[in-house]
Amino acid sequence: xxxxxxLCVLLLPALAGGQVASHxxxxxxxxxxxxxxxxxxxxxxxxxxxxxxxxxxxxxxxFPYARQHNGGIPKALAGEIHDGAMxxxxxxxxxxxxxLHRKLTVPAVKMQHAEGQFRKQFPTPEDYSAFxxxxxxxxxxxxxxxxxxxxxxxxxLRTEVDERSAVSPxxxxxxYDKNAARFTHPxxxxxxxISVLPPPNATADQVKEGRRRIDQVFAKAKATKSAVxxxxxxxxxxxDDYRVVMGQHKPIGADQLAPPVLKALRTMHVGNVSxxxxxxxxxxxxxxxxxxxxxxxxxxxxxxxxxxEMARNKKNQLRMELDHKLRQNAKIEEF
Length: 335
Fold this sequence. Notes:
Layout: H1 7-11, E1 14-15, E2 18-19, H2 32-35, E3 41-45, E4 48-51, H3 52-62, H4 75-101, H5 108-119, H6 125-136, H7 140-160, H8 169-178, E5 184-185, E6 188-196, H9 204-223, H10 227-237, E7 252-253, H11 259-265, E8 277-279, E9 282-292, E10 295-296, H12 299-328, E11 332-334
């Protein structure tokens, strides 16, 4: 059995704007970068060598779905993911070097706990030994060094980023008061649809066939008793793209709706299913799931989410400032 565990998943939290990954090798890599010289240097950071394997791990941290596609990354995203992975890899190395410069240490108890947690990922001691042999040439010391490295990075980031990113209740309230327009909202509707769409340049017969189809679906739609039932019917019968999400639309302002749809929604109660609505040559059926009148979100209702958002933004800003500071006097070469 192969494993694709990385130390960062176990030991390091995700940061806003990216995830810090460990340099521990990962089994099961089959992407192009892994296949082409995984030990080939791709960057030097103050003399420390970062390899192709390090880069692949960062790419997988950014785009974990690559493992589901035989290690492949979509061409349209490859450049962006590569650049982001390189930046994160260099940042991680700079943070580690700064931790060493500050003479940070990892308590023995914390090391033992981290080692134990890492071992728990493997079903049997034999699986763990196979991983150790494959990725660390059988050296427990090499693995321990990677675990210690991750913990040092985590420690410095906690001090420089996490602990400084907290926002006070007064700051949250002040932001709410200064940005009142953001917390006002227009009249909104949340709904599901089942639609029959004509082909391009539809003939009169094709439009007539569309009407016949929507009439057949209409009786079934009216008989549904929940959003789930309506959604399952949408998956099977609807032509619009929303069928893949059970016909569900995100909340939309009344001013953005087609007049026939808005007219129907304003006569409905939550849970109601509309009659067939004609939009040019298309036909749709709507289920109303929520109606929010125009108004202002109360501070008590948004306080918790707003505090999280502000802390996340502050953490991201602190991280960028730390990255800039560490790069100022660093010698970085990318190949």
